[in-house]
Amino acid sequence: MPALVLLALLVIVRALDPGFVQSLRLRGFDFLEQLAPRKYQPLPVQIVAIDDKSLAQYGQWPWSRARVAQLVDKIASGKPSVLGVDIIFAEPDRLSPGRLADSDPEIPADVVGELSRLPSHESVLADALREVPTVLAVAASNETSLARTPSRVTMILESGANPRPFLFTHPELVKSLPEIAAAERGQGSIDSEKDRDGITRRVPLFIVAEGHLVPDLALEMLRVGSGAGALEIVTGKEGVLGARLGSLFVPTDRHGQIYPYFTPSYDARYISAADLLDGSYDPARLNGAAVLLGSSALGLTDQNQTPLGLMPGVEVWAQSLESMLTGNLLRRPATLNAVEIVIVLAAGLVIIFALPFSNPRIAGAALLGIIVLLFCAALASFKISKLLLDGIYPTLSSALVFGVMLSENLRVAEAGRRRLASELQHEREIEARMDGELNAARSIQIGLLPRHFPGPPERNDLEVFASIEPARMVGGDLYDFVFLDSDHLSFAIADVSGKGVPAALFMAMTKEVLHTATLRYRKQLDRVFSEANSKISAASEELAAGGSNMMFVTVFAGILDLTSGVLVYVNAGHDSPFVLRAGLKPETLPLAGGPPLGTVDDFQYSIEQRQLAPGETVLAFTDGVTEAQDTAHALYSGARLERLLAAAPATDAKAVVDFVRDDVHRFAAGAEQADDITLLAVRWLGPVSSG
């Protein structure tokens, strides 16, 4: 079966997890985060930003290290728990006294001497950094030509399997100058590893560089700020599980990456460096806080595209730290890959084996339900457990499997329809040679139908007129009408399947069954159709037992209240009649109905209702009208009939019937009539005045 083959391929693709599948999954995670972002709450995490205001007030970047040292002094005076510096001081300060003297040979010798005795800006900055527990940023580099400088290595305990095969590995680190790095309490990586589409969704909690495990900036700030001596990385068979710092466990994906749960960018996180330097901001407000020092000025900062829009890199670290502190990291454990593969397989099998493709509408509604269920499962996992469960790939897989199943079922149905059409044509050819039998069938058919039609002057409240033209290949059309009482007219039109004498005899039986049931149950049309269906089914089964084809009947029947114009009706697989009124476009009666009589046992047919206006005509017909053919075998069609009726005389029931019949004759233009042409018109003239 093509759908099973497709499902197997989809499961294999998901198991291989190529780049485009990952991209789809990540886009789905973005949508969930945009739909339900983390709510911002004030936390002891602050960003001291070298922003546009700071540059306007203190000059362009880079500032001298002495200016940065002044800023660090201001921060240190507030006694924060830790300072994370998202700036790497890898090059000597060109404004440092010694380098300034070397840069200009025209500086007098005595001034050079004075400058040389001044401390370097690097040492000034290092002294400032020693006043506060500081974590300096380091950046991963794939350059192998960098000169290695001594660095502080954080003690990282390893629990479980070796984590290195799962982590991002780099040969070198870009660090601050040794004189500055000597003041640090720790080093934190600012490697963000953007995804293929350039969006920052996850951050490596650990990387491997220079042969060591290196924590990221936010995690190292947590360690230094809490006074802990070591971190622990926990690894399972399928990859990294997370990091432990005291009682805090930080979950990661298998590659050791965390998924910060972002909030929109808020100004409340930021403190302008200018406000600290000029005293506008009280450093005491930083007491006990984790402070990040970085840039946010346009043109200076590394702007990161996140699921919630652009934000400076320093804010990514701030939001990572907030997510860790509040337990709001999003989780993507390795086991979710297996779970998602099972979901793809289960949804596909349900679609293949459980959906009723014989009824495309119900099958489509079921598919929509599956898609909604997958989306709700992903959303609930996100909101309740902060689990990143993929709903995109299972949804697309389900839609593809559904499409293949639907097209295959339509192909099989079309093949069946063509086979039935071929068999029907074969039967017609055989019956065409049975002239004597056909003549007998015509006599039976015509002799059973009423020929006297009520109307003025006998009755002033309605007109009835019907016409039947048996084809050479006689069918089983019939019409009938009877007054249930002086104020209610029952009428019906029907078409028996098959041709020839069997169809004519079946028509006679059908007419008698319908007529008897109508007189017995009168206005209870649902009971009329229930009894008729039961008896016609029994007769059809007897024919089948005798070796004949099973037969069925399409029927439209109605009861018209002649005092009110209310028409109640039931339809069993028949073409919808038209309602005609002078000056208005013809319209079809809406039909819910049910299957033809004799096809489904114990079917409960529903009664429908229409209010007629005085002068309106109900025109019922059999498919001999719409399926009449011309010499080129083109069909007359329902569309042509509807266009014709727009110009039909609506003042006389007989005129309407004659008008349609004449147009069908003109269309056929000498072609052999293949089916009975039957028309029944009922025109309500309005209630009879008592005066």
The proportion of residues in beta strands is 15-25%
Instruction: Give the count of helical stretches.
Output: 20
The main sheet comes to: 7 strands, mixed
Q: Judging from the principal axes of the Cα atoms, what is the shape?
A: elongated
Give me the count of strands. Answer: 28
How confident overall, as mean pLDDT? 89
Distance between the termini: 74 Å
Which stretches are low in confidence, meaning pLDDT under 50 for 5 or more residues running? Answer: none
Q: From the alpha carbons, calculate the radius of gyration and give it in angstroms.
A: 43 Å
Structural class: alpha/beta
Estimate the helix proportion, in percent: 40-55%
Word description of this protein:
- The protein is α/β, with parallel strands linked by helices and 691 residues long.
- The chain is built from 20 helices and 28 strands.
- The strands form 7 sheets. Strands 1, 2, 3, 6, 7, 15 and 16 form a 7-stranded mixed beta sheet that branches.
- A hairpin with a 2-residue loop joins strand 9 (206-209) and strand 10.
- Helix 1 packs antiparallel against helix 12 and helix 5 (97-103) packs antiparallel against helix 6 (109-117).
